[in-house]
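quick one: magnesium ion bound model?
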Amino acid sequence: MSQSVCILGVTGSIGQSTLKILQQHPEQYAVFAVTAHSRMLELVEICKQYHPKIVVVPVGKVEELQQYFKQHQLTNIEILTDEAGLIAVAEHRDVDIVMAAIVGAAGLLPTLAAVKAGKRVLLANKEALVMSGDLMMQAAHDSHAELLPVDSEHNAIFQCLPEGYFQNERNGQPKQGVSRILLTASGGPFLNHSLQQLKTVTVAQACKHPKWSMGQKISVDSATLMNKGLELIEACHLFAISEQFITVVVHPQSIIHSMVQYVDGSTLAQMGNPDMCTPIAHALAWPKRIKTHVPALDLFVMQQLDFQEPDTTRFPALKLARQAMQSGGLAPTILNAANEIAVAAFLNNRIGFTEISQVVEHTLNQVETGAAESIELILQVDQLARSTAEKIVMNHGS
Ligand code: NDP
Ligand code: MG
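yep, here:
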């Protein structure tokens, strides 16, 4: 029998890659529900091809979507709206697998709803886990949800960890012979830029990643290395390991997607061509393997693999994220919220590239942290951090 899939954020880069895999395995997976935010024409094309039972869009888009449905004679597709709609499909009893691929904090509640409902949750939306950390992991434990990493690095680590690793006690210590995680980073498009050069880079340059084709927000995060910072926090939660056991390694070719080291001197790496379809397919079918179009590595063509330490003077975002994880509690929530505001401001040409980390740092200094006791508190602090960051942007702004 086929499994029923809900794709949160279907119109995005991860959403489209997910569809590509599902299309190759129609006997195994059926698209039950999809969600979109602004790209209604793309959504209609997806509906024509995959015939979902439910779509979710913002209430302000319903009329436009209905018009398109009429034009294309699409019937029998239920339209739900806004956050309530996103939550309803994420926890829907007819859904087996939820791809969490909304970008940013907007994905938190729907992702958490899927986790609480005990689904297999394919986690691309790292911001949701960065914000809610222990609460999300506890919810997964309580509901027996399968929270599987799609982020290529975390998927690689997952593949390199020993079997049964997740049944361990969550006390921050590496277990079962594991000694360290090596989290790889491509270094982004500005790896060799000087601090002076970084000050004048444009939005177009920042969004053009050398190895991966991704949405705008994560592309900018990759350029500042905040993406690696968010991933460091993500890894701490997913693998119940404290940040001191995670080393970030810059590896510009993006062939090794991360590594796990063991006490006997072994280092296991997962390698592959940089294409998100591989980790998506892995998480969809785990523990089985399914085919993708991604070609196997040709080691004779590959010339060399390079590794270097990240430079946190030019890329302070990584240091800020590590410090936020060390502080714990609400600090990662504040970091994430400030970063979302700062990246949006950069994308709108309101601040320069190097000011992104400055906005995050100042926000972290201004908003009081504490224990992340509840989702309500997390959402409240997220809002407070956003308004604080917005004020800092205004003071910086032109
Ligand atoms: P995109 O920007 O390409 O897509 C984002 C998706 O979220 C779109 O479907 C968009 O809808 C939807 N969306 C945006 N804002 C909202 C909102 N406020 N409410 C509901 N839906 C919204 O991003 P990516 O696919 O690149 O990334 C998605 C997530 O996956 C991010 O968290 C990213 O960090 C993570 N990730 C991405 C990787 C990649 O290779 N792209 C790799 C690893 C992780 P619409 O387009 O219709 O506006
Ligand atoms: Mg990644």
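The first strand starts at residue 3 and ends at 8.
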